[in-house]
Specification:
alpha/beta, Rossmann fold, 2 domains, 7-stranded parallel β-sheet, 6-stranded parallel β-sheet, 17 helices, globular, binds uridine-5'-diphosphate, glycosyltransferase
Length: 486
């Protein structure tokens, strides 16, 4: 008799950049391992009804054996207007718990759900999974170094007890198998130890370390880029026993997410540029620069004399992640409101300014693209590895400074421009780093381009049938099948 394939539910965190790796992970489990998946999507007030980008991501799932349930949008009417987007992230998950409970209860009875895969922001759903007797897996859509820092946080909290700010730590933080991290390079959310967010993160880490009820941790990295860090995690005992970990990366978007007309504008423009000549400039789904920094970047790109596509978001002087949960442009695009006078005209022909969103995977995969100035979001980073595009590391928030350390100091696939004392990266520095990357001049530029080429091959190999990540995913799928048949 043929067995019914296991059914799993996935619960990504809010924001398109969390949705993308979850959906891609689900897609691979459905296509390569014949699992059935239901995606439970928490909604912020801004992403209701879902944006075209959200719908496009979900459309990459096979129609058969994959379903989507949108939760009712949470209410933020009580929050001050200037609430940090990352705080809204956490609140979206906690405020969605009653609807998550409702949906999971019905899935557990109707679809015999075996397991729940949850974004770290949704750790509180662990109690629901236990009540319903469903296995619980955390999926960190980031790397081994970030996971290792989370597991180290309870101890770090004791070490840092006499400091208000992590940036003041006198010694670098040494995580097993990782490059040493200066205090200022740790997660943005734990920099100020006096905040509620810091305390929440420590509680969250303590809950993971105690490990009660977590069946495994999945993350988006692979052996070739973090061999020692992954091995250290594999050996680490959590809650008295070795916790199964699954390095299944690179899990990145495979298609184009965007709007057809805008996509073709970008890609047609690229079609007409020389091979490897264009620098793609993007700060991810939600990264924003201050007004002054936008001005410096515009002049820096202009002074570099290089070709570029710049995905521009409205500047924000308060938050580096101001556009994080917005999913779509806020009002009509008026670049003249914030780009230097005459910039668009002066760079016409060699520069393209794009409003808010570009079909990134296709831009990076295009033969005219030769460099990526990136905020070092982990998905963007993996996409640049996969397409062999060397990077300029410009981290802004979340775990991006950690990623920059990995890219610049360990993997040597990125150049990093220096900020001056007031935190601004000036136009001359930008022009100089852009030229070094795009022309491969100087020792560092040359090394970065060579190392990127080598990494492209090992990134694809991780996904080959016998690659380390494909094997980790098969192991996970067979564990789920065994659980389902018991
Ligand atoms: N992305 C895109 N077009 C854009 C900006 C982002 O397709 O204009 C995609 C990008 O390819 C990646 C994700 O959105 O898959 C961004 O994730 P990442 O982890 O790099 O950064 P975050 O948005 O979380 O800061």
């Amino acid at each position: 008799m043929k067995q019914t394939p296991p059914h799993i539910a996935i619960l990504p965190g809010p924001g398109i950049s969390h949705l993308i790796p979850f959906v891609e992970l689900a897609r691979r489990l459905v296509v390569h391992h014949e699992l059935h998946v239901t995606c439970i999507i928490p909604c912020t007030p801004d992403d209701h009804p879902p944006s075209d980008a959200t719908k496009a991501v979900l459309e990459s799932l096979p129609k058969r054996n994959a379903h989507t349930i949108f939760l009712p949008p949470v209410n933020f009417d009580d929050l001050p207007n200037d609430t940090n987007p990352s705080r809204k992230n956490t609140l979206t998950m906690t405020r969605s718990l009653p609807s998550i409970h409702h949906v999971l209860k019905s899935l557990a009875s109707s679809a015999s759900t075996t397991a729940l895969f949850v974004d770290p922001f949704g750790l509180d759903a662990l109690d629901i999974a236990k009540e319903l007797d469903i296995s619980f897996y955390l999926f960190f859509p980031t790397n081994a170094m970030s996971l290792s820092l989370v597991l180290h946080l309870p101890k770090l909290d004791e070490i840092a007890a006499s400091y208000d700010f992590m940036r003041d730590l006198p010694e670098p933080v040494k995580l097993p198998g990782c490059p040493p991290l200066r205090g200022g390079d740790l997660f943005a959310s734990i920099q100020d130890r006096r905040t509620d967010t810091y305390k929440e993160r420590v509680q969250f880490a303590k809950r993971i370390v105690s490990a009660g009820g977590i069946d495994g941790i999945i993350f988006n990295s692979f052996m070739d880029i973090e061999p020692d860090a992954i091995r250290a995690l594999q050996e680490r005992r959590i809650g008295g026993s070795v916790m199964p970990i699954y390095p299944v990366g690179p899990i990145v978007q495979t298609g184009s997410i965007g709007q057809i007309n805008k996509d073709s504008e970008c890609l047609t423009w690229l079609d007409n540029q020389p091979r490897g000549s264009v620098l793609y400039v993007s700060f991810g789904s939600g990264g924003t620069l201050s007004y002054d920094q936008v001005t410096e970047l515009a002049f820096g790109l202009e002074m570099s004399g290089q070709r570029f596509i710049w995905v521009v978001k409205r500047p924000n002087n308060k938050f580096p992640n101001a556009a994080y949960l917005s999913h779509r442009p806020q009002g009509p695009f008026k670049p003249l409101d914030f780009l230097p006078h005459g910039f668009v005209e002066r760079t016409k022909g060699r520069g393209l300014v794009v409003d808010f969103w570009a079909p990134q995977a296709r831009v990076l995969g295009h033969s005219s693209t030769g460099g990526f100035l990136s905020h070092c979001g982990w998905s963007s980073t993996l996409e640049s590895f996969l397409y062999g595009v060397p990077l300029i590391a410009w981290p802004l928030f979340a775990e991006q400074k950690l990623n920059a350390v990995l890219l610049v100091e360990r993997l040597k696939v990125a150049l990093r421009p220096k900020a001056d004392e007031d935190g601004l990266i000036r136009r001359k520095e930008i022009a100089c780093v852009v030229k070094a990357l795009m022309e491969g001049t100087g020792e560092e530029g040359r090394i970065v381009r060579e190392r990127t080429k080598a990494l492209k091959d090992s990134t694809s190999k991780a996904l080959d049938k016998d690659g380390s990540s494909a094997r980790a995913l098969s192991e996970l799928a067979s564990t789920l099948k065994t659980t389902a048949s018991n």
